[in-house]
Design a protein that fits this description.
alpha+beta, Immunoglobulin-like, 5 helices, 31% strand
Amino acid sequence: MRTDRILGVTLLLLLAGLVAAPGASAVLSTPENLLLDTYRADPKKERPGTTGSVKTTEPLASGGFYIVEATGTYSRYLRPLMNNETRPKLRRCGTPEPAPLFPSPGVLKVAPAGIDPEWAFSYVVADTGPSPCPVPVVRPIGAFQMDLGAGFRHVIADNRGTGPRADHTYRYTVQGTGGPAAFRYTDDPLGDNNGVISIRIRPATTTDCAANQTCQESVNNGTTPPVTGDGGTAQAAANEVIATTNRACVSRRRFRIRLVDNRKDPIVAATVRVNGKTVAVAKAKVGGRNRRVAFIDLRGLPGKRFTVSITAKTRSGKVRRGTRKYFTCKPKRDGGRPRL
């Protein structure tokens, strides 16, 4: 086919809207839901003091206006501190909520929550005197940050108000720069945190822009893309958070077990298997006695029941067998003394 005919056909397709213009790219037009976990088991994998960021799958239109909604509560401290248990030189300030709105996946010891995307309303301070808590206790916080193309920073919510909202949902009007929007949480350390922030982002509408003339013009002239689809409701987004945290639960349990011994006929050799896989057995001094112990490592495994099988040989030549069952992603269960 001649070059002029190819150009002619391409021009017709462009006019018909069947082929994207050179350099054109998709931009975010359908509402997108993101999950930002404030907990991180190994902060060394990221720059110290920051969670791994989450970002939109498509870029925000350059100059276009978007609405970001962030919902969630979380804790920056371990459960004993937030439960106000006695700790030297530390004191909890404020009144926390019983648990995060969306707990972090796999964190079993859920701590009371005292922080949302805009406000800290319960936290731990150094106990330096009779009244160490600041006045007022509730204070703004800038740990929830977003990057719209000029680096991460905290953007003050449109509906920040003078204290935490009852639903812990905050709304931000932001402007795109042609790249994806990224979100992160800052704290140091991150291993004692607990809670997920649900983020929902969509193009702004004329109703959203209200008295913002620049935003209105952006919507009217097409710089801000029209919303296509609804991306689910806000409640559906919350359900997605709960379903994802449950589905993503992985174990962080690693512990030592002691084999039950008999002073008159002690164990001289033992084999321990976790779901069929052999683990090392060693000698250790426990309570002034030499005991056989094994380390059970369930880290990274999904939430389920795991069986530990034990086969032991005693000094008299007897072979003893026993099993123990452990559950990951569930609170520790009380149990009796194992047979072996």
